[in-house]
């Protein structure tokens, strides 16, 4: 561990961007700065072999600029594989805005951000992520057409979060089928960490099916609201990761499966919406497999949102969106089976398929 930290620190000094551990042959990284609106944003374009880089914008109060760079690099890479495995003709990109979405987000700041997106002439297309609402994308739409996730009355496909939640639910059911022999979640205990846009909708599906739902969030008011609405139990223990549940569903931020938490998990399945759940894809994917914890790869099961926004570009409707999202069940089962047959982590099994699709397309170009 100490050696890893030392190595990372040396790399930061010698090659602060291209040498970053999370840098993975990204095509372009754009730093956007505007003094008047206070905008400090980074757009990461990982790969555009399959199409324009599409991915949401996250507004977050990062503890350092370094964390923001790291996040956008990891998130944009994840988008490349998400679109590839879902069969969409999209590349991977993502943007982060440094700041508190509750106090620092203004229409002027969002429009200025939209102008930066516009300057990339469609190579990057944005959408919402943590800290963003459909209304913010409507504001961005005032200055650029390179935005999705806009409201339905403005011709968009609307808020992608309920579709994302439906896809996660499908992926979770497939994982249950694989692990428990049945996809019926009635009576299964599921801890949903983060009950924001996606988490709440997932809680709704789960409680309708009769699962025993536990919820955890840093926002106490939301906990009480969601608990009342869906009869979900608020998880009060200090340690979320050692909760004695059947399924852990991370729906807050990424990297919750890391060196500190991985030995504490008691859940049999990990299936949630958060992007980049594994702090170290390779290492933690393998450890989960060794521990017998079935991990449904995040970029595979949380693709509902991108399917929804892709519909805006391709012009298909709700029925097709739901069918494609429902299909996450089948793809998840295939990948879990393939990981088992090939004795590799589920993350690696999913990654291989995504990478192969990109390599095949590259050969044709
Ligand atoms: N919205 C989508 O369509 C979509 C699509 C794919 C992936 N995702 C990913 O799913 C996750 C959730 O997205 P969202 O749109 O619901 O975001 P959101 O901002 O609406 O909700 C996030 C929730 O997590 C809570 N939270 C933050 N830190 C926490 C912590 N340490 N412990 C517990 N709760 C915490 C917040 O209070 C909030 O309620 C994100 O990682 C996002 O990148 C979202």
From TrEMBL:
Matches recorded under Pfam families: ELFV_dehydrog, ELFV_dehydrog_N
Similarity section: Belongs to the Glu/Leu/Phe/Val dehydrogenases family.
Top-level EC class: oxidoreductase
Keyword annotations of the record: NAD, Oxidoreductase
Keyword Lyase appears in the UniProt entry: no
Family annotation (Gene3D superfamilies): Leucine Dehydrogenase, chain A, domain 1, NAD(P)-binding Rossmann-like Domain
Entries under CDD domains matching the protein: NAD_bind_Leu_Phe_Val_DH
EC number: 1.4.1.-
Lineage: Bacteria, Pseudomonadati, Bacteroidota, Flavobacteriia, Flavobacteriales
Organism: Salinimicrobium gaetbulicola
Residue ranges occupied by any Glutamate/phenylalanine/leucine/valine/L-tryptophan dehydrogenase C-terminal domain in the UniProt entry: 158-365
GO molecular function, one term: oxidoreductase activity
UniProt key word Methyltransferase: no
The protein, known as: Glu/Leu/Phe/Val dehydrogenase
